[in-house]
Amino acid sequence: MINGGKVLAVIAARGGSKGLPGKNIRPVAGRPLIAWSIAAAQASQYIDRTVLSSDDDAIMQAARTCGCEAPFRRPAHLASDEATSISVVLHALDELPGFEYVVLLQATSPLRTAADIDAACALLAQSGAPACVSVCLAEQSPYWMYRLGAGHELQALLEAPAGATRRQDLPAVYTLNGAVYVARADWLRQTGSFMGPQTVAHVMPAARSIDIDTLEDFEAFTKAVAENAHA
């Protein structure tokens, strides 16, 4: 619970991945990719119920084998490339009413831990913010990014601070890593987004911020798991 309100965790995993077909049930260290997110949710001290939102029989069966509920099938229109994560979460809240808070966990962020989930929930509760999302330091600073003008001249995207000649001189910049999204259910319905002026952020290290979309991403994850196993 968060501030006495029940918390629903929605693990989103559709079957129609084009970048890496079948990625959500690809095995890593003897268990399917989706199992990593399920285990993190199950170990959270804030989450009251964890469910899968999927349109795919194989993913649903894999989730149930891991002890995760799959109480409904995601409609086809919410499993397309055009469907948004918000629409998936709102559908789950409609199917399972009675929760004051919702946590979205994308199956493609397997290195996010229960501690990350709990830190995001705790920050939301302590700050009074309506939403909290996870972020990590941006690999490339936008202060060193440029547009090209009509004559191919460089135009700075952002004006760098005076005298900044090294990365260390630039302000820290963060990017969404897609690992944890937490919000009040009523606020999410009103705004249709986890992002707003009052949204706060839980900072995660880059090592746990991998987002699997391609075979290269999956291989990097497999390597990280193997290295941790022998550490």
Task: Give the secondary structure arrangement, pairings included.
Layout: E1 7-12, E2 27-28, E3 31-32, H1 33-42, E4 49-53, H2 57-65, H3 85-95, E5 101-106, H4 114-127, E6 131-137, E7 146-148, E8 154-156, E9 174-184, H5 185-191, E10 200-203, H6 215-229
Parallel strand pairs: 1-4, 1-5, 6-10
Antiparallel strand pairs: 2-3, 5-9, 6-9, 7-8
Report on the structure:
With 231 residues, this protein is an alpha/beta fold. It is built from six helices and ten strands. It has helices at 33-42, 57-65, 85-95, 114-127, 185-191, 215-229; strands at 7-12, 27-28, 31-32, 49-53, 101-106, 131-137, 146-148, 154-156, 174-184, 200-203. A six-stranded mixed sheet has the order 4-1-5-9-6-10, sandwiched between helices. A hairpin with a 5-residue loop joins strand 7 and strand 8 (154-156). The longest helix is centred in the C-terminal third of the chain and has 15 residues, at 215-229. It is globular. The mean pLDDT is 90.
- pLDDT averaged over residues: 90
N- and C-termini, Cα separation: 34 Å
Indicate the structural class: alpha/beta
Radius of gyration over all CA atoms, rounded: 19 Å
SSE topology string: EEEHEHHEHEEEEHEH
The biggest sheet, with number of strands, parallel, antiparallel or mixed sense and barrel status, is:
6 strands, mixed
Bin the helical content: 25-40%
Shape designation: globular
What strand order characterises the main sheet? 4-1-5-9-6-10
Number of strands: 10
Pick out the low-confidence regions: none
**Number of helices in the DSSP assignment:** 6
Give me the oligomer status.
single chain
Q: β content, as a range?
A: 15-25%
